[in-house]
Design a protein that fits this description.
Layout: H1 10-22, H2 25-50, H3 59-68, E1 69-72, H4 82-100, H5 106-112, H6 119-153, H7 156-187, H8 191-219, E2 227-228, E3 240-241, H9 246-249, H10 271-274, E4 276-278, H11 288-292, E5 297-298, H12 305-330, H13 344-368, H14 375-398, H15 405-426, E6 442-448, E7 486-490, H16 493-508, E8 518-527, E9 532-541, H17 544-549, H18 555-565, H19 594-603, E10 605-609, E11 616-619, H20 623-636, H21 638-642, E12 650-655, E13 672-676, H22 681-689, E14 705-712, H23 713-716, E15 728-730, E16 733-734, H24 736-743, H25 749-755, E17 759-761, H26 764-773, E18 777-779, E19 785-791, E20 796-801, H27 803-809
Parallel strand pairs: 4-5
Antiparallel strand pairs: 1-4, 2-3, 6-7, 6-8, 8-9, 10-11, 10-12, 12-13, 14-17, 14-19, 15-18, 16-20, 19-20
C-alpha cells in the first residue's frame, strides 16, 4: 500500500495540523506540570527559605534573600540534578509516542492516507505541533521564573542569560527524546517493538559505556573506580562521577546526560545544577543557605561554552534525527503495519544490546559468588551467557527458533569485540595498569594506608566509648581500617620508586577468592601541570601493606612527624606540605586537618592506657614525652614495630580537652594514639624517669574479675571479612551506663554471652592469669581468640589472646 503522491489539499492539511494538537493534550499537561513545579513552585520555595520564609517585598526580606542567593531559577530539591535531564527526555518520548501512535494501527493508517494528506505533511504537522507545545509548556513557566528571580535577586543580565540556556537545555533534552522516539516509531510496525527500539536507541550510549566500564572495573587492574551510583531518582544520595570514568568523559554522546558541562567530572553538573547558586561559600561571608541548601555553585559567573556547546550539538543532532524520521516514514511499507518483526535491523539492534549487557553483567558476578575463580573463565562464561541471551531474545522477538547466518554474524562480532577488550584489560591495558609518570612531571604522590595515617597516629578510636556490641551476630573486634586515610605527600625519587614497585606488585598479585586476606591500594599522582593520574587496585594481596608501611621511613614522612611532635618545631604553624584543600584526602584520618593533629599532640591531655582499656593514668603532656616517642618511631620504624609479633605494652593517648582552644573544626577533634612496644627504649626510659612506667603493669586498678570467656575469633568473623597482614585488635569496653547512653537500651549479660560464647572460666586464679596474658592491642590473626572479661563492678572488657597462649592456658 502506498500513499498519494499528488499535492495535498490545503484545507485538509490545515485541519490535520489543528487536530494534531488534540493528541498532545496529555503530554502537554505532563510537560506543563513539570515546568510549573520545577521552574516556579520549587524556586519560589527556595527564594522564600533564603529570606524570612515569606515572599514579602519589604526591604529587609529582599536584603536577606540577596545576601544568600545569587540565582534560583532551579530550586533546591531532594532529587539529583542529573535526573531532570532524564525526566525531560522521557517527556519528549511521551510526545512522540502520543502523536505517532495512530500509525501503529492499520485502520488509522488506511484512513489517514486516503484523505488527501501525504506523508510529508502528515509528519510535518505532528513534528511541528509537538515542538510548539514543548516550547510553550517550558518557556512560559521559565519566563515567570526569570521575572520572579529578577524581582527578588536583581542582576537581570545574569538571570536572563542563565534562564535562556536553562530553557534551551530543557527543551533540547525533550527534543532529543522526541526525535529518537520518532525514529523508533517510524522504523517499527508494532507498539511493543517501537517501545523497545526507542528505549534501545536512547539507552544505547549509556549501555555500552556502562558495559565497558564494568569490563574496566573487573579486568583492568588499576582502573580508578570512582563512580558513586544511586539508581533511585529521589533521595539525598548523588549519582556522581568524579575522576577517570567514561561516564563524564563521554557524556556529550549520551542523550541522557549530554547536558553535563564539558570537562566536568560530575555528571550532575548541568544547567539545572548551574541555576541554583549561592552568593558565598564557607570561605566567604556567613551564608546559612550555602550550608543548608545550596548546590555548591557560588557567585554570578555566567554559564560558559562548556555548558552551551553540548546543548548546541544535541540541538543540531535532534533536528537531524527528525529529518531521518521523516525519511523513514517515506520509505515505510504501510502494508506491514501491526505485523511483528517486520524490521530485522530493529530486532538485531535491541538483541545485541541485551546480549552485551548480560555478558558484561555476569562476568564479575561469577567471581563475586565464588562460582569461577579465573578471569579467563569469567570472560568466556559471561560471553556464553550473552550469546544465549541474544538468541533467546531474538527467538522471542521473531517467534522463531532457527536463525540464519546473517543473524549469527552480529553476535559473533560483538562477542569478539568484548573478548578483545577483556584480553587487553587483563594484560594491563597497553601499560595502563603499571603506568607511573616521570619523576620530572610529578608534583607529589599519595597512597592509602590500611593502618597508619600521615601523622603516625595509629588509631582514632576512643578507649572508653562503651561501644561493645552485645547480642549481635558479628563480633566488633576493633580492626582499624580507615578507608580514607592516605600517606603523603611523596615527591622524592626514592619514594616514587617505592610507590611504582607497589603498583607492579598490586598488578601481579590479585586475590582470586574474596575470603582470602586482601586490601585495596589507591595511588594518586598529582602532576605539575595540574592533571592527576589515579590507580586503584582492588583485591590485592594484603602483604602489600608491608611495602606501604616502608614509606613511613621516607624523608617526607619523617619531616611531617617532626613538625607535629618535635619540640624544635613546636612554634611552627604549618609544615608547608598540607593545606585546607587536603582535608578531602583524609591524610589525618578523622582529624579535620594538620593543625588539629598538632594541637591534639601539643595541648591535649596525655594518658597511659593499658591492661583493661578502661582505667587511664594521666601524665603530664611534655615536649620531652613527644620527643621520646618521635625518636623511637624514627629509630625502630613502624614496619618493625607493627610486625614484631609482640603485643604493645599499651598506648599513650593524647586526648582532646575542652580547654584546648586551637581547633579549626570542632566536629573533627579526636584522640591521637601511639602504641608503646618494649622496643621503644626512649619512651620507656622517659616514663621510668617520671615514675609512670609501672602504669603498664599495675593491675590494681582493674578491679576484681567475676569471670572470663575465651572465644575463637574465627567463629565470630562474618563470612565476607578476612584479616589482612596488618589487621589489629583493639579492646572494646562497656558499662551499664555507657551502654545505655550509646545503645539506648539495657546492657544484658545474657546478650553479651550470646556474642562471646566461648569457654567460660570462673576460677579467679585462672581468670586472672588469662587476663594478664591477653592484650588490649595486638596484631590480630584469624586463629586468635577474644577474651571477654566481666568485672564484678559490671564492666565488660575485650582482650586478644594468641593461639599459642590460648592453647597453653586452656589445657
Amino acid at each position: 500500500m502506498t500513499s498519494p503522491k499528488s499535492s495535498v489539499d490545503k484545507h485538509s492539511a490545515r485541519y490535520d495540523f489543528k487536530r494534531s494538537f488534540i493528541r498532545l493534550i496529555a503530554p502537554g499537561i505532563v510537560s506543563l506540570l513539570f515546568s510549573i513545579i520545577y521552574f516556579i513552585a520549587i524556586p519560589v520555595a527556595t527564594i522564600s527559605s533564603a529570606g524570612t520564609y515569606s515572599l514579602s517585598l519589604r526591604a529587609e526580606n529582599i536584603a536577606s534573600i540577596r545576601k544568600q542567593l545569587a540565582c534560583a531559577l532551579f530550586g533546591n530539591t531532594t532529587s539529583n540534578f542529573v535526573f531532570y535531564g532524564v525526566y525531560a527526555v522521557i517527556i519528549g518520548v511521551l510526545f512522540a509516542f502520543c502523536i505517532f501512535f495512530p500509525i501503529m494501527r492499520k485502520s488509522n493508517v488506511n484512513f489517514f492516507f486516503s484523505c488527501g494528506i501525504d506523508r510529508k505533511t502528515y509528519f510535518k504537522n505532528r513534528a511541528l505541533s509537538s515542538i510548539i507545545i514543548m516550547i510553550l509548556t517550558s518557556a512560559v513557566p521559565l519566563m515567570i521564573d526569570i521575572i520572579i528571580n529578577i524581582r527578588y535577586l536583581g542582576h537581570a543580565d545574569f538571570i536572563i542569560h542563565q534562564g535562556f540556556f536553562l530553557f534551551l537545555e530543557h527543551f533540547t533534552y525533550m527534543l532529543a527524546g522526541f526525535s529518537l522516539m520518532s525514529i523508533a516509531m517510524m522504523a517499527c510496525y508494532t507498539v511493543t517493538e517501537s517501545l523497545f527500539f526507542g528505549a534501545g536507541l536512547i539507552w544505547s550510549p549509556m549501555l555500552y559505556i556502562v558495559s565497558i566500564e564494568w569490563l574496566f572495573q573487573n579486568f583492568l587492574r588499576g582502573y580508578s573506580q570512582t563512580a558513586t551510583v544511586d539508581y533511585m531518582p529521589l533521595g539525598s544520595s548523588s549519582l556522581t562521577v568524579t575522576v577517570d570514568t567514561l561516564w563524564s568523559k563521554l557524556s556529550v554522546i549520551n542523550p541522557l546526560i549530554f547536558g553535563t558541562a564539558l570537562g566536568s567530572n560530575n555528571v550532575r553538573n548541568n544547567m539545572y545544577f548551574n541555576c541554583l547558586r549561592s552568593t558565598a561559600s564557607n570561605g566567604g561571608v556567613v551564608n546559612d543557605f550555602y550550608y543548608d541548601n545550596a548546590s555548591g555553585n557560588v557567585g554570578f559567573e555566567k554559564a560558559g561554552m562548556n555548558y552551551i556547546l553540548p546543548i548546541l550539538i544535541w540541538l543540531v543532532l535532534s533536528v537531524l534525527f527528525i529529518f531521518i524520521s521523516n525519511k523513514l516514514l517515506n520509505k515505510r511499507k504501510l502494508e506491514n503495519t501491526a505485523l511483528h518483526s517486520s524490521n530485522l535491523f530493529v530486532t538485531v539492534f535491541v538483541s545485541l544490546e541485551f546480549s552485551v549487557l548480560v555478558a558484561t553483567f555476569f562476568m564479575p558476578l561469577l567471581s563475586d559468588f565464588d562460582v569461577i575463580q579465573s578471569s579467563v573463565l569469567d570472560i568466556f562464561a559471561g560471553l556464553i551467557c550473552g550469546i544465549i541471551a541474544y538468541f533467546v531474545f531474538m527467538s522471542i522477538s521473531r517467534r522463531k527458533i532457527k536463525h540464519g547466518i546473517k543473524l549469527v554474524i552480529p553476535v559473533g562480532v560483538s562477542s569478539i569485540a568484548v573478548l578483545v577488550i577483556s584480553v587487553i584489560c587483563i594484560s594491563g591495558g597497553f601499560g595502563y595498569s603499571t603506568y607511573c609518570p616521570d619523576i620530572k612531571d610529578i608534583d607529589y604522590a599519595t597512597i592509602n594506608s590500611e593502618y597508619i595515617d600521615a601523622s603516625g597516629v595509629m588509631s582514632t578510636n576512643h578507649f572508653n566509648d562503651g561501644s561493645l556490641s552485645a547480642g549481635t551476630d558479628q563480633l566488633y573486634y576493633g580492626t582499624y581500617e580507615p578507608s580514607g586515610a592516605y600517606l603523603g605527600k611523596f615527591n622524592t625519587k626514592d619514594s616514587i620508586d617505592k610507590i611504582e614497585k607497589i603498583q607492579n606488585y598490586s598488578f601481579k598479585n590479585r586475590i582470586a577468592k574474596r575470603n582470602e586476606p586482601y586490601v585495596t591500594v589507591k595511588i594518586k599522582y598529582l602532576l605539575k601541570n595540574g592533571k592527576t593520574v589515579n590507580r586503584e587496585y582492588t583485591c590485592t594481596n594484603s602483604d602489600v601493606s608491608l611495602d606501604i608501611i616502608k614509606l613511613t621511613q621516607s624523608s617526607e614522612y619523617q619531616k611531617e612527624l617532626e613538625f607535629l611532635m618535635s619540640s624544635k618545631k613546636a612554634d611552627e604553624k604549618s609544615s608547608g606540605t598540607f593545606n585546607s584543600e587536603d582535608e578531602s584526602q583524609s591524610y589525618f584520618a578523622y582529624f579535620a586537618n594538620e593543625n588539629n593533629v598538632k594541637n591534639a599532640l601539643n595541648f591535649g591531655v596525655a594518658y597511659i592506657v593499658s591492661n583493661d582499656a578502661v582505667t587511664k593514668t594521666k601524665i603530664e603532656n611534655t615536649p620531652a614525652l613527644r620527643d621520646a616517642i618521635l625518636k623511637d618511631i624514627e629509630k625502630v620504624g613502624y614496619k618493625k614495630l607493627l610486625t614484631s609479633g609482640k603485643a604493645p605494652l599499651g598506648a599513650i593517648n593524647f586526648s582532646y580537652d575542652d580547654s584546648v582552644q586551637n581547633y579549626d573544626n570542632i566536629d573533627y577533634m579526636n584522640d591521637a594514639t601511639y602504641y608503646i612496644w618494649d622496643d621503644m627504649v626512649n619512651t620507656i626510659n622517659y616514663l621510668k624517669s617520671i615514675n609512670k612506667f609501672t602504669a603498664f603493669t599495675d593491675l590494681s586498678k582493674s578491679g576484681e574479675i567475676e569471670y572470663v570467656t575465651v572465644t575463637a575469633l574465627e567463629t565470630r568473623l562474618s563470612s565476607e571479612l578476612s584479616l589482612t597482614a596488618l589487621s589489629t585488635f583493639e579492646s572494646d569496653t562497656a558499662t551499664p551506663e555507657s551502654y545505655y547512653e550509646y545503645q539506648g537500651s539495657e546492657l544484658k549479660e545474657a546478650d553479651v554471652l550470646k556474642t562471646y560464647n566461648g569457654k567460660k572460666i570462673t576460677d579467679s586464679q585462672k581468670a586472672q592469669e588469662i587476663f594478664n596474658q591477653s592484650s588490649i592491642y595486638s596484631l590480630c590473626k584469624k586463629d586468635g581468640y577474644v577474651v571477654l572479661v566481666k568485672f564484678k563492678n559490671n564492666t565488660y572488657v575485650t582482650k586478644y589472646l594468641s593461639k599459642e597462649k590460648a592453647q597453653s592456658l586452656l589445657k
